[in-house]
User: Which sequence fits this backbone?
């Protein structure tokens, strides 16, 4: 099978670090083109890449099979629609759209043109959340009662990125970071039975939420508490799980983002390895009623697993790991007023 010729719609942080390195390293893809209206930065890193000055020009290139829509959140729906109408498969950055209604329209459009609509939720392949999933599956925690997922930052001032700071569809920390954590919870526990949301705006002059708390209630009385904040100077553990027989605590310490920004390619043997002394702490009661404490190392983080799934979906028509129903549920929660 020939590699999938792929185009990026932007070459900012997302394109440069979270997409291009994987497309270049994975033999199933060819990083063929980038949409760059002004500076042609991609050519500095990938001299053979084709540069387009307009989306219209890019979409008429029939050799392009897959388009990565990695533009600001408020543009996702319209750009994805244009790409599908041009009969391209699309990999759509999270949050997929601002509303579930927009995503439903894209689902129907993708079906009508017989193309794949795939959503990029790369943090399902983070080392830390994968470790948590394995601990839950092991049964050592007993029946799960509560799961706390946090994404903390300390950024008390307004950034220069207008698309993130202005009151636009899909803006604010809940859409930006909460979409990761809500997706992780849904990927583990399924569709929540009910949920509640609290958002706050604490920075001087902010027009968007910079704090959010979500409570998801799943089957079997499993509670997931999700917190995203721009106001945490002392970063807290990203994963805390309590069950009837034990607890698991772990930092959000996946190293893939740091490695990519340091220039490590995804096919490097050390890519995805966590730093030393970042193991999770598992405390549980064994069958002899003894309290056991273990340090649990993570497996490698593997964002490349997402791209392998994209390839299998497009070339071999296999189901994609991130299904449309899960994205619709996520967007319904994010869109709650």
Assistant:
């Amino acid at each position: 099978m020939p590699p999938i010729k792929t185009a990026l719609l932007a070459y900012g942080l997302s394109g440069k670090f979270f997409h291009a390195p994987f497309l270049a390293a994975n033999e199933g893809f060819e990083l063929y083109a980038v949409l760059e209206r002004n500076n042609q930065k991609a050519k500095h890193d990938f001299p053979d890449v084709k540069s387009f000055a307009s989306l219209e020009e890019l979409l008429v290139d029939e050799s392009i099979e897959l388009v990565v829509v990695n533009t600001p959140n408020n543009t996702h729906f319209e750009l994805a629609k244009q790409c599908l109408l041009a009969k391209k498969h699309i990999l759509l950055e999270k949050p997929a759209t601002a509303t579930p209604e927009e995503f439903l329209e894209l689902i129907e459009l993708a079906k009508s043109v017989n193309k794949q609509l795939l959503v990029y939720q790369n943090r399902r392949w983070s080392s830390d959340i994968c470790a948590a999933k394995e601990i839950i599956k092991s049964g050592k925690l007993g029946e799960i009662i509560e799961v706390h997922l946090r994404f903390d930052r300390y950024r008390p001032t307004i950034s220069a990125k207008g698309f993130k700071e202005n009151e636009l569809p899909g803006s604010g920390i809940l859409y930006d970071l909460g979409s990761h954590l809500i997706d992780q919870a849904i990927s583990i526990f399924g569709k929540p039975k009910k949920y509640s949301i609290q958002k706050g705006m604490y920075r001087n002059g902010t027009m968007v939420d910079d704090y959010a708390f979500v409570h998801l209630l799943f089957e079997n009385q499993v509670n997931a508490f999700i917190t995203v904040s721009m106001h945490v100077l002392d970063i807290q553990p990203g994963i805390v799980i309590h069950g009837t027989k034990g607890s698991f605590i772990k930092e959000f310490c996946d190293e893939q983002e740091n490695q990519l920004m340091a220039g490590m390619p995804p096919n490097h043997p050390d890519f995805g390895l966590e730093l030393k002394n970042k193991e999770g702490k598992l405390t549980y009661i064994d069958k002899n009623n003894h309290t056991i404490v273990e340090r649990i190392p993570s497996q490698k983080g593997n964002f490349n697993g997402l791209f392998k799934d994209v390839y299998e979906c497009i070339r071999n028509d296999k189901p994609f790991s991130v299904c449309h129903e899960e994205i619709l549920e996520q967007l319904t929660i994010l869109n709650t007023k």
About this structure: The chain has two domains: 4-122+306-318, 127-300. Residues 127-300 form a domain with the Dihydrodipicolinate Reductase; domain 2 fold (CATH 3.30.360.10). The first strand starts at residue 4 and ends at 8. The mean pLDDT is 96.
